[in-house]
Inverse folding.
């Protein structure tokens, strides 16, 4: 059974940076596409970024493009989300997710392709 554990959240001022980590265990991490999603209070969960199993392709929401970077280290079974130039609207609980089955690449931004989710880590950006 695959388990995901996020870390690295916290409180940061506008313009600051954070790096989130998501450590996977119990599966074949190197074969999974991985994604980051977030959910702000009163809002639906939304896609943030995703990366293919090899790390060769990455995908971003328009709201975070050029500010956030997703990358992975398959030797460490870990996926990261480097967040720069943070804004108050980035405040949310951030979740990492693993796609355990194959799917059409066009669906990589959709939560439904991800079968395994972490517990989330809070990111708060103060103005």
């Amino acid at each position: 059974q695959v388990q995901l554990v996020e870390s690295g959240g916290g409180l940061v001022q506008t313009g600051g940076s954070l790096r989130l980590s998501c450590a996977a265990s119990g599966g074949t991490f190197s074969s999974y596409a991985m994604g980051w999603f977030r959910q702000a209070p009163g809002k639906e969960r939304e896609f943030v970024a995703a990366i293919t199993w090899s790390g060769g392709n990455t995908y971003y929401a328009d709201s975070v493009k050029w500010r956030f970077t997703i990358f992975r280290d398959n030797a460490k079974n870990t996926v990261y989300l480097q967040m720069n130039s943070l804004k108050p609207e980035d405040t949310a609980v951030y979740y990492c997710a693993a796609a355990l089955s194959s799917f059409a690449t066009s669906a990589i931004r959709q939560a439904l392709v991800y079968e395994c989710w972490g517990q989330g880590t809070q990111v708060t950006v103060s103005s």
In short: The longest strand covers residues 18-25. The mean pLDDT is 96. The CA atoms of residues 4 and 24 lie 5 Å apart. The radius of gyration is 13 Å.
